[in-house]
Amino acid sequence: MDPNPIGFQHHDHSHCVADAVEAADRSCREAGLQLTPVRKRTLEILLEEHRALGAYDVLARLSEDGFGSQPPVAYRALDFLTKHGFVHKIEKLNAFIACAHPGELHTPAFLICTSCQAVAEAETDPSHSLLANIAETTGFRISRAVLEAEGTCPNCLASEK
Amino acid sequence: MDPNPIGFQHHDHSHCVADAVEAADRSCREAGLQLTPVRKRTLEILLEEHRALGAYDVLARLSEDGFGSQPPVAYRALDFLTKHGFVHKIEKLNAFIACAHPGELHTPAFLICTSCQAVAEAETDPSHSLLANIAETTGFRISRAVLEAEGTCPNCLASEK
DNA sequence: TGATTGATGTTATGTTATTACGTCTCAGCC
DNA sequence: GGCTGAGACGTAATAACATAACATCAATCA
Ligand SMILES: [Zn+2]
Ligand SMILES: [Zn+2]
Ligand SMILES: [Zn+2]
Ligand SMILES: [Zn+2]
User: In which residues is Zn(2+) bound (chains A, B) (predicted)?
Assistant: First the structure.
């Protein structure tokens, strides 16, 4: 299985890390946010891997790179990036992944392949959202939604046969 | 979708625990499953509380009742109940809650009030499911879905004013 | 200058979950 | 009866995930 899928397709990975970091940098400057070295490096790590990483995986990499070696170092950077939409947490995996569609405000849905561990981020249509409908009928006001599905990705389905 | 999710309304709780346990008992006998004392007691505990409980909360109660005191005791019972649809795990809370609509196969959606901690289980319409649509367009085969929303429940919205 | 804020680091601890292994029971079979 | 395999339950030990509390430093600003 491809160790490098975005969504479930192959792609040229060589430039997208730098581009995404650059975009985040610009976005932070505009918003008055500090994309500090640890934070930037954390984002790079997630982009390079292009898959969901646990906080301790990230921490190990940061530590190798000369940053602090204690859990709060990773958790704080991940919190910042998550809070500002550059990274998402996959609740089902207790893991983090770089946003595949940064910039726009969105409610992502994740498709998690239990065979190859790939994670794809799909966009949802807010107006037709299942949860929005439920919220409307029940009078519940949603602030954040978690949409995750486990299953088998197209690649793994194909190779099963 | 269920227009009347259990969770945000008061209701007479006195009989529903016994009824639900009875139903589970019957269902297990029919399916050739063993609803053993620990498993039954675990289900009772979750039904009595009628809210999401952590595995260690459940464990403490089981231990008080003379069952084992080590984590696997709770996790194994919860795994059994979850696997067979009597209990759901709320990923966002790392907690477990008794199913509000047992018996039918379903993909529940949870509404989690961050103000009062109430959790409501709403039914979803599989055919119109957001994730089902995504799966169709991407070729991903879903085996399990996690649908959870955090926000404010109708009761808390009302008392905010 | 002194106060405030926000970022980073550390130590220590808390919370959630699993692995590994021994025992018991019961059903199926000789 | 005695053997065997499967499944349930118990324990000890450990792994994996996450936060609290506190010290330091730099930038900002009255
Ligand atoms: Zn995203
Ligand atoms: Zn796959
Ligand atoms: Zn349910
Ligand atoms: Zn509430």
Answer: 113, 116, 153, 156
- Which positions of strand D lie within 7 Å of protein CB atoms? 7-14, 16-21
Residue with tokens 């770089």: A98
Establish if A44 belongs to a structural domain.
yes
CATH code of the domain in which A71 resides: 1.10.10.10
Our CA dihedral for A73, A77, A80, A83, rounded to 10 degrees, sits at: -100
- Condensed to tens digits (0 to 9), the pLDDT of residues A4-15 reads 445 677 676 778
Strand C at less than 7 A from CB of A77 = yes
User: pLDDT value at position A128?
Assistant: 67
Q: Is A1 part of any domain?
A: no
CA A91 to CA A75: how far, in whole Å? 15
Query: Does residue B21 belong to any structural domain of this protein?
Result: yes
SS3 content of chain A, % helix, strand, coil (to 5): 45, 20, 35
Residue B153 lies in a domain: yes
Cβ < 7 Å from strand C, A residues 86-145: none
Read off the pLDDT of residues A30-80 as tens digits, 9 standing for 90 and up: 999 999 999 999 999 999 998 999 999 999 999 999 999 999 999 999 999
Q: How many domains does chain A have?
A: 1
pLDDT class for B38, splitting at 50, 70, 90?
A: very high
Which residues of B, range 11-70, sit inside 8 Å of A by Cβ? Answer: none
Nearest to A33 by CA among A21, A25, A43, A41: A25
Domain, as residue range, for B65:
16-160
